[in-house]
Task: structure prediction
Amino acid sequence: MHQSYVGDGLSRNTARAIFSMRLKRWENGEGITVFVLPDSHPVHRKFTRKVLALFPHQLRRSWDRYVYSGIGTAPIEVEDENDMVSKVAATPGSIGYTSKETLDADVRTLFVK
Amino acid sequence: MQMFERYSLSKLSGVLLFGLLACSFVQAQPNSDLRWHGFFSQGAIHTDDNNFFGDSTDTSFDFRDLGVGFSWQAQNDLLLAAQLIYRDAGKTSPEGAKVDYALINYSLINQYDFGLNLRVGRVKNPYAFYSETRDVASTRPSVILPVSIYAPAFRDIFHTSDSVMLSGYKEVANWLVNFDLLRGTVPFDDKSERLLIPGLQPASIKNDKLWAARSIFEYDGGRIRLGLTYIKFDAEISTLPGMIFPGDVDSDSYIFSLEYNWRKFRFTSEYLRNDFIYKDVFAPGLDNKREAESYYFQLGYRVNERLRVFGRYDVYYADKNDKSGDGQLLLGRPKSDGFTKDYVVGAQYHFNDQWMLAGEVHHVKGSFILPLIENPDASQIEEDWNLYTLQLSYKF
Result:
């Protein structure tokens, strides 16, 4: 994790830029891999509404425009929260979210300010 | 970092803890991967008069889209992407599959609040709100896009181009400003040429040039969106004198777009002014100027996560100085070819993130919306008619 994010978290605007797939690189130049739960998953909806202050369909619109006009990519969809934690843990430079309280040591928890 | 209201865990929810998980960097590894995507739709159209996408008075199923594509993140700042498309829209669609886009996207600057991309290849033109994904059913507000801004007859001129394009975004306060600039040529085929000027011999459009500029201002993650588009198209018509003569065609389009989201409502409106000048084409020495004016108002309501309903009023005038269409009589067409007023209600049901069923009812006055190629006999055209459509779609 890049120095400036450690213990400091992300601003909401940065989190929005990452999850809308606009921001593709961390400040040190590494590519960001974004994992999300399905649109209809309650945790995805809650994360989108509470943390990003967006509706899931707003995110979906950005992703669709990127994918179907060839100018970007959509996040990688995971099956459930266990899958989310293990994929984030296994992928350098990745980001995801979960409602789980206990996380394994391979992931770092950030807070959106 | 700037100070924002701290999002403490207790604020989020009593039970849910949103850890934003971020994996530490173990090693430098480019985010390189190959990703596939695709979409499919099959529709049915019935009209009580006139033909729209096939023999619709007998119910037409010649209404399907099939697309498949990939993107490859070759390096962190280099994305290659391409998509093939097969469209069946009655007699208006091209035969066989076409390269919808094939481009290289180079990211020049990529910060959270400012970005700049250079794109080269066949690209989707920046045009109003819905053009770039107009073939993907679930990205549209309705089965048939408003004719005022997205007329099937002009699709091939304005939809894609072989271009160099500069695109970017800049965050200013709570606004995100997106901008696109493009210079290129239109990938015409014989059929799209004839849609532009009926009766044109193949390969008659020469030296065509397209310029486009668009800016979309998004407030608070897209709660309010404002768009401005300018598209200019110039070409030479080189044809043997006959029904049509050698000359020039020039087109200027200005589009103003607005979207406002409030609770479960979405209000959308777009306005287009499109000037077409045909120099010598219809008669040597004669400039034929047509000032089209068109707009729609649409109100959508999200009943729940699966069901959406909408209503729309959609108007097109081929010439704003001749709203009753008298000038069409000179071309051997009915007056109603000069306008279309379309009253639409419809619904979309999303079974899940992939499958969707959509349906709508159109009550139409006027026949501009009708493809000429499917309605060649002027005496058969009815000014007042209804259209019913149902469409099943899938995407991945």
Observations:
- The first helix of chain B runs from residue 9 to 12.
- Residues 97 and 163 of chain B are 21 Å apart (CA to CA).
- Chain B touches chain A through 72 residues (CB under 8 Å).
- Residues 1-16, 26-31 of chain B have pLDDT under 50 and may be disordered.
